[in-house]
């Protein structure tokens, strides 16, 4: 007798702090659980705040050939074909206006910018603290340089406000101009207004003819809140931010303890 279909037709996973362990690898156990779910009919979509250039390496390591939602939903990427299917850019005049208004309220912020496209660079302006690791960036001495090419988002930092405080201040000052998300430690982002992981995931799922109710989503940060609101079932990692824990349907083990595999294995064991 063939095994029953997987309870969800779509598994949507964030990358950092969720699918990836602290060493930026994916465990053999999690890979096996995703493969087993795929064998029973479930598609897997990576949904990440990283833009495509910062995501391609991870997808190649996974031998991932499907759709990926990148840059907080602004990009839908076909990994098998190596093509961008959709790309939404931030109006640079609006971005500049938002930064000016924000700095009137909180003082100088350090800024980095994610350039649009398959090979778009991340430009780090003066004072912006870039996380150590394998993700490439280009330091620029003059902040004006970031406005010279299409962007999908801006990163901002403040020397006194913490991430939550900066995100709160930005929403109050410029939330009517841009979207504001906290996507990880030291990562507060300004996006095109109305953009979210949920918007990008809905576009990708529509291409697969899969409904929100047929989706289980995994995440760890406040930028995953819209995705949880869209999906049929939202699973937060034990290491998740309190904002996401508050809206999760379920909490699993931490990313370093194979939290995704724990849930998938349970679902796979259902008769």
Automatic annotation (TrEMBL):
Coiled coil regions in record: none
Gene Ontology terms: cellular component: cytosol
Top-rank taxon: Bacteria
SUPFAM superfamilies on file: HAD-like (SSF56784)
InterPro entries according to UniProt: Cof, HAD-like_sf, HAD-SF_hydro_IIB, HAD_sf
Molecular function as annotated in GO: magnesium ion binding; phosphatase activity
UniProt-listed Pfam families: Hydrolase_3
This protein's name: HAD family phosphatase
UniProt organism field: Streptomyces diacarni
């Amino acid at each position: 007798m063939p095994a029953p279909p997987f309870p969800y037709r779509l598994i949507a996973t964030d990358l950092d702090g969720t699918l990836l362990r602290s060493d930026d690898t994916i465990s053999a156990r999690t890979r096996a659980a995703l493969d087993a779910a795929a064998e029973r009919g479930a598609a897997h979509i990576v949904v990440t705040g990283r833009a495509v250039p910062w995501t391609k390496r991870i997808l190649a390591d996974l031998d991932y050939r499907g759709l990926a939602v990148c840059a907080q939903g602004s990009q839908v990427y076909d990994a098998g074909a190596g093509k961008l299917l959709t790309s939404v850019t931030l109006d640079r005049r609006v971005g500049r206006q938002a930064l000016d208004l924000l700095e009137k309220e909180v003082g100088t912020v350090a800024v980095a910018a994610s350039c649009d496209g398959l090979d778009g660079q991340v430009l780090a302006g003066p004072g912006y603290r870039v996380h150590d690791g394998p993700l490439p960036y280009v330091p620029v001495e003059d902040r004006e340089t970031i406005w010279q090419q299409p962007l999908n988002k801006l990163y901002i930092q403040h020397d006194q406000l913490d991430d939550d405080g900066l995100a709160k201040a930005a929403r109050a000052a410029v939330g009517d101009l841009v979207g504001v998300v906290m996507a990880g430690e030291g990562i507060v982002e300004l996006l095109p207004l109305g953009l979210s992981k949920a918007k990008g995931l809905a576009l990708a799922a529509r291409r697969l003819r899969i409904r929100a109710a047929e989706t289980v989503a995994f995440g760890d940060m406040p930028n995953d809140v819209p995705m949880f609101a869209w999906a049929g079932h939202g699973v937060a990692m034990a290491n998740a931010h309190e904002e996401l824990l508050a809206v999760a349907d379920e909490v699993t083990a931490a990313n370093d303890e194979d939290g995704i595999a724990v849930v998938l294995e349970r679902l796979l064991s259902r008769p």
